[in-house]
Write a structure and sequence with these properties.
122 residues; rod-shaped; mainly alpha
């Protein structure tokens, strides 16, 4: 007796079409095109999960830099001063502080300035 892959094929196609839900035209209706589109979208998703981390770090740095300039410092000086003052706050936290807690950020900047002054004196 000849075997067919009817049920298995339909199930696998349905899985593909569920993943391609919302795609327009042939990208959501034609099996071959759906497969190609899903492969490509998977590659983009993989790439952009890594890119997202870079983008956010850049954003935090830009925000910190802008906030630090208001306190007469440069970003590089600020980061160096953080290391000297043994302040272990990451860039995400510093960025949020700069936006939502200006007094706290000012206190951190003052600590950094003190650490830089002490380092310059020695």
């Amino acid at each position: 007796m000849r075997t067919t892959t009817g049920v298995a094929r339909n199930r696998s196609k349905n899985r593909l079409f569920k993943r391609a839900k919302g795609y327009r035209g042939g990208r959501g209706k034609l099996t071959r095109t759906v497969k190609e589109t899903l492969l490509r979208s998977g590659a983009y998703a993989f790439r952009d999960r890594r890119r997202k981390k870079r983008e956010f770090r850049r954003l935090w740095i830009i925000r910190i830099s802008a906030a630090v300039q208001m306190h007469d410092l440069r970003y590089s000086e600020f980061i160096h001063g953080l290391k000297l003052a043994n302040v272990e706050l990451d860039r995400k936290t510093l960025s949020e502080m700069a936006i939502h807690d200006a007094d706290g950020f000012k206190a951190v900047c003052d600590q950094v300035k003190q650490a830089l002054a002490a380092n310059a004196a020695s």
